[in-house]
Amino acid sequence: MQKLILIAGPSGAGKTTISEYLANKFNIPRVLTHTTRPIRPGESPEGSYHFETEASFKKLHFFEHVKYGSYQYGSSREALENAWLDHDIVSLIVDIKGAASYLAAISSQVYFLYITTSSKEMLAERLLKRGDDPHKIKERLSGSELNVLPDSLKKDAHVLINDNWQQTEKKLLTIVAGLRKTLN
Ligand SMILES: Nc1ncnc2c1ncn2[C@@H]1O[C@H](COP(=O)(O)OP(=O)(O)OP(=O)(O)O)[C@@H](O)[C@H]1O
Ligand SMILES: Nc1nc2c(ncn2[C@@H]2O[C@H](COP(=O)(O)O)[C@@H](O)[C@H]2O)c(=O)[nH]1
């Protein structure tokens, strides 16, 4: 049975870094979602999202979608099915609401990886270093945007504390080996 590594967690925790590592090291591609937010400095227009206008976003058919501030984000079941045509394991980055939607719909195929750090300060430091606007960082690291793991999803989550990259690499190796054993 094909698997989806569903990645969620607070901004700056390392979700994108981990999905890129899974792609490069284990040939586990990321299923891109769609957003109306602008491209960040240093972000590739092909690598992280399908960047949409409000008009083009409205024409798409989403499995689930959310709004952060004035920007929309959404993912489709078709994109996932397409990715599974070529790869038995794929990854997808969503927020906590998106994770809940996927778990409700296809939990047997989902490996829910919740990425975080042991402190909020570490998240802020990384986002500052990444070049994010300090006002946006404050927004991202408070309220619902913080993407705290709710009690209702704790039983489904595999929590990975990404404080130290070498340890994260080791944990990912174990996770991928375990998932590969469950295929078929
Ligand atoms: N283990 C780590 N140690 C130090 N820096 C890290 C680690 N993992 C990721 N980073 C760095 O932290 C920054 C944030 O990582 P990344 O962009 O992957 O986070 P994210 O969770 O995808 O954030 P967002 O939700 O805002 O897109 C990046 O500059 C990345 O290089
Ligand atoms: N529910 C969904 N959440 C999504 C989707 N694509 C991305 N995201 C999440 O949005 C926030 C903000 O992302 P950023 O790239 O602007 O930092 C983050 O939590 C993403 O995981 C989606 O299709 N559905």
Give your account of this protein's structure.
The chain is α/β, with parallel strands linked by helices and 184 residues long. It folds into 2 domains: 1-29 and 88-184, P-loop containing nucleotide triphosphate hydrolases (Rossmann fold, 3-Layer(aba) Sandwich); 32-86, Guanylate Kinase phosphate binding domain, CATH 3.30.63. Helix content is 42%, strand content 21%. The chain has 8 helices and 8 strands. The protein has helices spanning 15-26, 54-58, 77-86, 96-106, 120-130, 134-140, 151-154, 165-182, and strands at residues 3-8, 33-35, 49-51, 64-68, 71-75, 89-93, 110-116, 157-161. A 4-stranded parallel β-sheet has the order 6-1-7-8, sandwiched between helices. A 4-stranded mixed β-sheet has the order 3-2-5-4, with helices on one face. β4 (64-68) and β5 form a beta hairpin. The chain is globular. The termini are close together. The mean pLDDT is 94. It binds adenosine-5'-triphosphate and ligand LQESDW3C. Adenosine-5'-triphosphate is lined by residues 9, 11-17, 126, 129-130, 162, 164-165, 168. Ligand LQESDW3C binds next to β4, β5 and α4.
